[in-house]
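TA notes. Do not distribute before section.
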Amino acid sequence: MINTAVRHQRTNARPWRGILLRQGLPVSLGIVLIYLLVERVGSLDNDQIATAFGSVGALQWALALAATGVSFLAVGRYDVVLHRILQTGIADRAASHSGKTAIALSQTLGLGVLTGAIVRWRMIPSLSFVGALSLSLTVALSFIAGWAVFASMVLLGHPLPAVPNWIPMAVLTAAFALVILSVFKPALTLAGRAITLPPLTGLSRLPWLAAVDTAAAAAALWFLLPAEIELTYSALLPAFLLAFGAGLICGTPGGVGAFELTLLALLPDVPQSPLLAAVMAFRLVYFAVPAVLALFALLTSSRHGAPRSTPLRKVYDCDIENAPFAEANLLNAGDLSVLNGPHGSALAMVARRGQSLIALGPTLMRGADGFALSQLNDHARNCYLRPFIYKGDARLTCAARRAGWAVRLLFAEAVLRPGEFNLEDPRRRQLRRKLRKAINCGLDIRHAGSSLPIAAMTDIAAEWATQNGGERGFSMGRFDPGYIRTQRVYLAYVEDQIVAFATFNINAQQWTLDLMRTARAAPDGTMHALVTSALQDAAILNCPEFSLAAAPIPTTARSAETGAIVTRWLSCLGGQGLYQFKASFSPSWRPRYIASPSRLGLILAGLDVARAIHAPARIQTSGRDAHNHYDRIRIASTGPTCDREGEKAARGLL
């Protein structure tokens, strides 16, 4: 399934031409099958067919109509599931109504994808025609996949002589492989096109909906069988499923021709004239009646409707300057979205990755931890994702623990007060040794100001990435000229040649270390010298707080607090060396947690985060030029980030 918002499809493309061409072969085949069906019916006793049709009783009609209603309840849920997965913002009721109407008309008129697209475009005001066409194609492919899985399961339980057992086994094996890919490699590239598999919870709903839909449709036909046909429902179901699929793939109106011929071929011992009479009655109940109701719904619908809801948004105008923490500047990298609060306020930085909706760091709105947790949970469930907190602070994690979530302490944020930083502190002996080594090598540290040597920095970043297995992403910045211009940058020179640089996210509340990039020529202690120079400038500019960002807590310190699986996952981030580097500054340590409603959620989200960090999406900077941002640094007027209640809660967690 292509993971792209339906409304963002290119309007100048003409995919319906390709759809028409692809429909040509099935339609041509359908015409041939209709001809063969006419020849087959001509050899039967038409009076016997008419008599069998007239023998259908009122109770049979009523039961068939009830089964049809059940089938179309499931039909409407296809669109609901896909709108949620694609995050179109369309309400469930509107999605279900348009989906039932589109399928009722398209299965009767033929050319299902194109007909369904026209209906959906007509009934959903905010959906473009190209977006409706993409959605209709996705619904069709999703149904075929779900039908194939359900039909294979039925065929294994009730095999047909005409279908070898290896076919349903191969289909179920492919379905299992798809599930594995959804967990371990949800982002694929096929034929040069990026494809993102839906989350496992949403993916599992498609076969279930297909089962309810087609089983109810088969029940509608079974209820209409004349009395002279002694056929159990379990014997009819596998033949019906294959006939239904043949009619769907054929693309003719109602699958005429393919459905009948396949059903007759798979049920050779059933009297054919009464069976065709039941099929005629079935077409009246399952195709004609829904089509009439759908046509009425289409004609009475309006192109004017309520706007979409937007629980997540990409923003670059968020008030990063006054955010509670400087890492909010990660929004400028384009990897993250903002979870909306009341009146469009920003609640938290979030990202949708694999099976998880991940909230990164503390909340963006002070005092809204419980509300942010509730919104995160509701939106994740609505999109069939698992909510997850990554590097949450004590207050947010307390709210999660009160809600019954599983919580683990895995990180600690290194924090310093620039005005109180003293290099002569005995606890910073290792830092002083590193600085002496760097100075003895002739290292010179300079603040870059507004003029960045992009070419030299690019070379250093490329060399660093080669040595370290590529750039990281998601919860940490990546080298990009547009992104680093939103930061404060320090450069390290040896004999007027740049050998390293460090960048810092800054706002009114704090400075936070982000990128650290060194060349092979950089002497030992270079990064220590870069951070120390930034610390000294932060003290001069009255910065209230200086953060070295979070680091994984050493394994020995968290072994009793975490599970073995999550611990092994975290070790791939190289936490030991990073922790030791930050510890040399003798900072205060703030606990940072991960949290999920279940332990399974912790494991699955751990995989998603590790994948997001080591295989990040392409960076998309906002172009916000803030290289002079540091001139606006001021002491926050909103007070400390944690009150006494929050500090007490933090002690309780520890």
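Switch to the second chain here.
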Amino acid sequence: MNETFDVWKLLAGMGMFLFGMFLLEESLKTLSGKAFKKLIRQYTDSRLKAIRTGTIVTAILQSSAVVALMVLAFVGAGVMKMENAIAVMLGSNIGTTSTAWLVATLGFKVKIDSFALPLIGVGGLGMIFLSSSPKLVQACRLLIGFGLLFLGLDYMKNSVDSLAQSFDLAYISGYGPWLYILVGALLTALMQSSSASIAIVLTALNGQLIDFDMGVAMVIGANIGTTITVLLGCIGGVQAKKRVGVSHLIFNVVTGLLAFATIPVFVWFIQLFIVVDNNSVIALAIYHTLFNVIGVLVFFPFIGLLARVLVKLYPDRKTVLTVFIDKTPTEVTDAAMEALKEEVKHMLEECQLYNLRLLNIDEKLVFDYDTPFQKNSKRKLTETILYDQIKLLHADIFSFYSKIQTQKMEEIEVKISERIIYASRNIMNSIKNFKDIKHNLDDFDASGNDYLNTQYKLFRKALVRVYHEINNILQLDSKEEQYRQLLAAFVHIEKDDKRVISDTMQAVSDQKIHEIEIASLLLVNRLFTQSCRLQIFGLKDLLLSQGQVNDFDRALDMKEIIEENHTTPLNKKDSGEQATT
């Protein structure tokens, strides 16, 4: 058997098939990604439409996993109802059967070399000579994907044909269908693609390596195995995403069990139209489609019930991100505004933590304790999760502020509350600046230019110093001392800004930095400086009296603070951000 079976040919074919599927998915997502997402969102407002959309989109993308992950994203974002999400997943199970039809009708009926090689050739040349057009490049990748998919199928078919000549089915016939269901499920779970595993099953069936009954069991297993991708996508997700993932598992498992229990009925029905022994590959494609369609028909009336059960199993658990305003009544305005002020200080802490992690700075240099977000988390928060939580906290702060405004307040209380909410906006905008320059700072750190490496280190040192100054100010009891320290911190920020510009001018003269690097460095410096300013402005509105705020704003225009000939003056546009953002 080893003399006739080329295992490398089988593996090469499998690799080409999977890579072809990957290229198909990626190129289609790039060419029509927005269109497909829009299609899913607009055409899933009823269960029937959701099933139809799931079927069509999956048939085009050739991947139920991609559609499932898109549905998880929409459900997690709250833009798709639970019942309609389940319906889309049901439709995707029908759509994924298109791969079996594609393989069964073309893969074994046409001389593959006659169209696979031209597709790869045209696509490869097109990617080189049409590289100036992104859309044409993606179209060429699409051609290569189709070509590799069929060429890989041909390699697998030929290697299996050789094996089949010396393989006796009697060796495995005694293990029973449950083994083949397990093999199909494991194969799909490992390759993360039911399309690929079903293509392998059809190839083995075409080469008579397995018989029709074995193929039926493996296809059922493949349907169950495809749920692994969706379940992996649910890990760590919101409750709604878990409901969708479990619904997909329930549908596929129950449908698989029903299909297995009624194999004789399905085979009898298929034999009314074709001779299974002579057209086993087509018969298996029919069977795959038929049991998925029947499964959808069985589940359709129970979508609402399934959704309600899953809501009970996975109820929404709103994560409480606030520390001070969650249990404070807005009716007592004095206490409410004090709680609001403390919550904004808490948001400042989380923003500082986010910025430190963004610049890969050990937070212990600033904090000797865990911030509330980190304290309530079982593992270290990623930058993305931390940023999302800060945004949600900011939303909670604004909602609480809005509720305070419905209460009867004196004019001075209204102004104080406005200053507090301005402070929260400035702090939120400060981390948005850091988020925008994250990739530039990473480039500086990884650059082969010593000057950029040095500037990256100086930015990190400056941030730690600013945060030490801010945290020291927060510990002061005297508003007068807070006022003086805020001005001093602002002066230090402006001196850093001048230093970067001065050093960069000298570096340009010494040819230590090039044009594109100059632009990047000046942009980073502007946003870095603006971010630090915004946090000072936030503290000013939080801590100082109205008279001190007015004095502070007048002080910013003094020549001792900022010279008129400064290359990046803090003009009214910059300082005005604190009141207009």
